[in-house]
Amino acid sequence: MFTKAGVIVEKEVTTLENKQEQKEIPSIYSLRIEELEAWLKGNDEPKFRANQIFEWLYSKRISTFEEMTNVSKGLQEKLANAFTLTTLKTIVKQESKDGTIKFLFELHDGYSIETVLMRHDYGNSVCVTTQVGCRIGCTFCASTLGGLKRNLEAGEIVAQVVNVQKALDEKGERVSHVVIMGIGEPFDNYDNMLSFLKIINHDKALNIGARHITVSTSGIIPKIYAFADEQLQINFALSLHAPNTELRSKLMPINRAYKLPDLMEAIRYYIKKTGRRVSFEYGLFGGENDSVMHAEELAALIKGIKCHVNLIPVNYVPERNYVRTPKDQIFEFERTLKKHGINVTIRREHGSDIDAACGQLRAKERKEETK
Question: Are residues 220 and 289 in the same domain?
Fold first, then answer.
């Protein structure tokens, strides 16, 4: 009996070691093209091979290094020894009547993440995840259940878009837009997020236009300043959800660390530095932040700011107690903002007949991760 138990433990240790070893090998999808060129130079390979490798990765979307037929066997071996070619295992794939598809992917270490394909009149948009779990603790969000497990490598974020693109290849369609609004706080994984942005935007990679990419933050102020100084043409959104600091602290504990007045100063800096407008994401929670008084307060808060307000009728999350605002009240909130000259729209619902809320599918299918 002891011997048998010992064998079982030994197998578990070996598996864990194998996973740890795999984790230490970076994903080739994490490399920007200039980083790949530098790696090639350091490995006595010509710089032009970088363009060939990117073509195999992002145009032909290969699954193994051996498929790179115009790359020498020697270089294939060097690549295989230095990098993993990140693959995501599909655990669950849910498809809505409106064409929305939600993927629950498993990572190499057994953790899971969500990625969503949304269909619009203007193209196919992919919502990507940047972390396994989240530590921000927003009281309305399923993503934070179980806390933060780890950051995603840039290549693991890139692989989400590549996987969805592979699914679209079968229909002759392409990913045209990307939003970074999935599980996790993007600015809490800032460097990997930034690499991801630059990789998918590159014309030798997925060639997704900067103005077709949107990144959202819950309000990590130092990173907002840093992002402004990057002066990218990426669209920028702030998850606001409340018009005053007391209510925002109740809904979003991050407001206790980064106060609303200071956050609004950072937003003004971003606009001054980049000349670009900001989108304010405002989820409507029944009886919490959705009255005409709240709308008036919101209008006063953002008056004079170059912005757009995106009103979001919330999806019900079983683990949370918030309910959806009635339709007539949503329209009244919208009218109140428009009365004050605020540019506002109501977000179109996607995937209401599936586990559409961020983190909801993971919470249902992987309970051990979200306890």
Answer: yes
In a domain, 348, yes or no: yes
Please report whether residue 113 resides in a domain.
Answer: yes
Per the structure block, which two tokens stand in for 45? 């390979």
Q: Note if 369 is an active site residue.
A: no
- Residue (of 121, 109, 43) closest to 76 by Cα position: 43
**358 tagged catalytic:** yes
Q: Provide CB contacts within 8 A for 49, sequence distance 6+.
A: 40, 71, 75
pTM, to two decimals: 0.89
- List the domain range (segments joined by +) for residue 67: 2-82
Cite the DSSP H helix spans in 43-179. 49-54, 73-82, 154-169
Q: Is the pLDDT of residue 355 over 70?
A: no
Question: Which among 65, 82, 99 is the end of a domain?
Answer: 82
Residues 26 and 140 in one domain: no
271 and 354 fall within a common domain: yes
Same domain, 31 and 134: no
Q: Is the pLDDT of residue 55 over 60?
A: yes
Is pLDDT larger for residue 171 or for residue 15? Answer: 171
Detail the residues annotated as belonging to a binding site for [4Fe-4S] cluster.
134, 138, 141
Determine the Cα–Cα distance for residues 360 and 117; give it in Å rounded to an integer: 15
In a domain, 75, yes or no: yes
* Catalytic option among 37, 45, 114, 369: 114
Summarised one tens digit per residue, pLDDT across range 57-71 is: 999 999 999 999 999
- The rounded radius of gyration (Å) of the Cα atoms in the chain is 22
